Amino acid sequence: MGHAVGDVLGLAAGVAVSPLPIVAIILILATPRGRLNGPLFALGWVLGLTLLGAVMLAVGGTGDASTHKHPATWVGALKLALGVLLVLFGAHQWRRRPTDPSQAQLPKWMAAIDRFTPPKVLGLGLALSAANLKNAPLTIAAGASISSAGIPVPQQVGTLAIFVITASLGVLAPLGVYLIMGERAKSVLSTWRDWAAQHNVAVMAVLFFVLGLKLLGDGISIVA
Questions:
Q1: Cα 66 to chain centroid, rounded
Q2: Number of other CB atoms surrounding residue 28 within 10 Å
Q3: Nearest CA to 141 among 204, 213, 189?
Q4: C-alpha atoms less than 13 angstroms from C-alpha of 122 in its C-beta half-sphere
Q5: How far apart are CA 70 and CA 141, in angstroms?
Q6: How large a percentage of the chain has pLDDT more than 90?
Q7: Which of 52, 94, 103, 164 could form an SS bridge with 205, CB 3.0 to 4.6 Å?
C-alpha cells in the first residue's frame, strides 16, 4: 500500500493546487449563506473526486490493471495519453497567460456566485473536481495507479481516501480558516483570493507541464 500511496501523492498535490476552485470557495464563504454553502461546495468537491476515483478502480479491477503485481500495458497507454493531453493543455494555458497578472479576469459566472442555491453550489463543487481539465485526468491517473498496484481492495480504498483527502486540502484550507476565525478570516482569505486569481493561468500552465511529463514518464516505463 505504501508504494501505491507514494505514486498518487504527487498527483493529489497537483489537484490540491487548483487556484480557480480556491477562489470559488472563498467567494462562496463571503456570501450571506457562506456558512452553509461553503461546506456544501467542499462536499461536492470531495464527492466528485471520490466518484471519479471509484469508477477508475472498478474499471481497473475488471480490466486486469495489475498482472503479477505489475501495471498492465493498457495502464501505461492510458497514462501516456493523459500525459500528452496535459502537456498540450499546458502549452495552451501558457500562450493565453496575461502579461500583467493584475489584469487577469475570472470567469463571468463567479460574479453571480452570491445567488447560487445550495444544490447549485454542490453541483459546482462536483464539476470543478470531476469535470476539470486538470483534476479529472489526474484523478483518473491516480485511480489507474491504485488499481494496478496489485494490492487488496480494502487497501485500494484506503489509498483512494488518502488521495482524495490530500487533493482536497486546497479547498478545505479556506473553509477551515473561515470556520475557525470567523469575521477575522476575511483579510486572510481576501489575500489568498487575489493571489490565486492573478496567477491562476500561469500556475495551471506549469502544473499541466510538470504533471503531464510525470505521466508521460510513468506511461513510458510501463509500456517499455
A1: 25
A2: 27
A3: 213
A4: 7
A5: 15
A6: 39
A7: 94
CB 134 within 8 A of CB 86: yes
Query: How far apart (Å, rounded) are the C-alpha atoms in residues 205 and 23?
Result: 17
pLDDT at 224: 72
Distance, CA of 161 to CA of 130 (rounded, Å):
15
Q: How many domains does the chain have?
A: 1
On average, the pLDDT of the chain sits at 86
The residue written with cell numbers 497578472 in the block is: 101
Write out the residue range of the structural domain in which residue 60 sits: 2-223
According to DSSP, residue 66 is labeled: E
Amino acid identity of residue 96, one-letter, is R
Enter the C-alpha cell of residue 137.
485526468
pLDDT for 89-123, tens place per residue? 888 888 877 776 666 677 788 878 888 999 999 99
Q: How many CA atoms lie within 13 A of 1 on its CB side?
A: 12
In sequence order, what are the residues at sequence separation of 6 or more whose Cβ sits closer than 8 angstroms to the Cβ of residue 96?
A: 201
pTM of the model: 0.85
